Amino acid sequence: MDKDTIYYFIGIKGSGMSSLALILHDEGYQAEGSDVDGYVFTQDGLAAAGIKVLPFNPDNLRDGLTVIAGNAFTDDHPEIKRAREMGLKVVRYHEFLGQLLAAYTSIGVAGTHGKTSTTGLLAHVLGGVDKTSYLIGDGTGKGVPDARFFVFEADEYRRHFIAYHPDYMIMTNVDFDHPDYYKDLADVESAFQQAASQVKKGLFAWGEDASLRKLHADVPVYYYGTADNDDFQAKNIVRTTTGSEFDVEHRGEPIGHFKINLFGEHNVLNTLAVIAVAYFEKIDLALVQKELLSYQGVKRRFSKSTVGDNILIDDYAHHPSEIKATLDAARQEFPDKKIVAVFQPHTYTRTAALLDGFAKSLSLADQVVLTEIFGSVREANGKVSSQDLANLIGHDTKIIHEDDLSALADQHNAVLVFMGAGDILKYEDAYKALVKEK
Asked: CA–CA separation, 171 vs 209, rounded Å?
């Protein structure tokens, strides 16, 4: 690390990139970056920290910069090309993060789903008992000088998490996703196996995941879940409209009773993983119990508001398993209300590859409303459409557009669960404006 250079982030509004920029800023380093002009929720934290954000332009590059290149951009990006032409040091985001971990007791959180929620919970709990730096995939990052722990989200996309050699790693699950890169489930499993082989002290994995049960590593693998063969087992689970509580046993020995103000079975499992890490780091579990009760969640993960006579839930869910978990949580908290899933499919390749899974998970809602498919930098169109998904779901599934929200305007005393990883926030904002206008 160099106090004299300016760390320049190409794609600074990316969720991981903005988090990393905040960490460097907190630790006394100079950070700035560039991105698209349009609003992205991650820029709020950057603005609050006084971190300069410029529009993409090769002329931004100048001597004295160390360039951190976002993984969403290829080497053909004009700014990356200019940086290399100038002879500036250019490091990819995941490579830079991997180098940063060496100074801490590092704990990575990997998984096809649940990474951000679990990372946020772990950072909150550990941060309440000792100095903790963290990087969360909702654009939140914090650097603490002389921190004991560094908690970070480890993304499996394009095997980026292979750049990391953490002390501990939590693996929440393994599913087939990112079909634009991975060939099949076996390909995803091979990536997680490689990541597991690089862990230094211990691995914590969800025991009911068949793929994770295949793992072999040079360090102990501790399984958590609700089955008798799990090393850390949640028992006597009670789920109510105010949260969940349960007992935890480690290899048959009771270690405590825990309460969370969170909903859904997945949050019980995420909490169990955090408890397991704390147990092996010899943290007082009474302090863990206290910190769990004060946790409020992360951005775009089951974030609630009230609009008119409806409750809005905003969630990043964009895979069938995540949709199922989010709707399960909504049912737990609002068992007597109509649940309306408002879903924006994310990328054509994912929609086509997981079409049946999307239809099955979305059918758990009382009503389904779809937007058109959100493409990506790498993928502007495809052969599948939202109408194909609507036809598969049936049950009078509707499709909305920014200028036609009639399917939402007719909803009353319901829970509208907005889900997606694209720009679904614009539909939420349009709906809020429509209600305010009325």
From this structure: 10
